[in-house]
Amino acid sequence: MLKQFFITCSGADKTIIYSCSNGEQNKYAGIGATVFFTALLAWIAASYALYTVFDSIYTATFFGLIWGLLIFNLDRFIVSTIRKRDRFGQEFLQATPRIILAIIIAIVISKPLEIKIFEKEINAVLLKEKNAMAIANKKEVANFFQGDLDKNKAQTDSLKSDIVKKEKEVNDLYATYITEAEGTKGTLKMGKGPVYNEKRQKHDAALKELDALRKANLAKIAEKEKLGTTLQASLDKKVADTQPVIDGFDGLMARINALNKLPFLPSLFIMLLFLAIETSPIIAKLLSPKGEYDFKIEDGEAGIRTNLAQSNHQRELMRTTDAGIYDDVYAEIRNDRELYNYKKKKAIELLELQADRFSEKQKGAM
């Protein structure tokens, strides 16, 4: 049962192969098994590759099955269309386009499986790339908001600086009228005289200005700090909103690029392995000598070519014979006087009708 299934996979003519020896049947069963397992690997590889795209095992399995059936049909077609020739050069020339197609199929099949085999290493590469992207994204978003943040901070610092300057001015005026009262500076007279009162009034006026300035600036500073908090929250929200995009940077193309950053040699060996598997049925047919099945196929094709040549020859003889007969018939008719007189009569009638029509047209034009 399994042998019959693999023979079907090889694309061999069942009527002919089952009339061959058991060894010949086993050879084509082996070729069919290679075709089947190559398609099976293609199904697995395509399913995994599509799973990284759709994130759905059922969708990936369904489309992977379609891809596997396509590869199965292509491999079966490639193997079944190779015919053994008397010269190896002719066989190789015939198989060259099929070998190229097999190489392309092998590369397509091996790449998703390479991604799965080196999944841990690829994840490490992707993690580094995601971290670098996250840092770059934070810098880019920070640069976008940095102008507003710097401007807001500068305005806040300016308001605070105004308060500090005014406080220093009030403190200096306070020290001035205190030292005047103590007699250590100014007029050097102890007591609260006119100069003391004048300096005290300047201090009190500056103190009122400080209170008004502090009240106004603190309100503005509160607004600026609120604005700064809002800007920082917007920055954090922008970073948080873009982070899922970075976290999702693990699709098929990203994994292929990450795979290309890994050492080339292990990936090359895996690709060569699948290349050997994919081309093995073709190589086996090229290297194997003509077998019983090939001779029977050649015998059937030779019989068809002979029958076709005979049929073409017979049709050509029929055509030339029939043409000769008609040549003789029309040669005899050409010498028949009765037919000649009849055609002459009809020609005269046509000429008379033509002359009458021409005469009527000329009269109508006058």
UniProtKB/TrEMBL annotation:
Keywords: Membrane, Transmembrane, Transmembrane helix. The keyword Transmembrane helix applies. InterPro entries: DUF4407 (IPR025519). Pfam families: DUF4407. The chain crosses the membrane at residues 28-51, 57-74, 264-287. This is DUF4407 domain-containing protein.
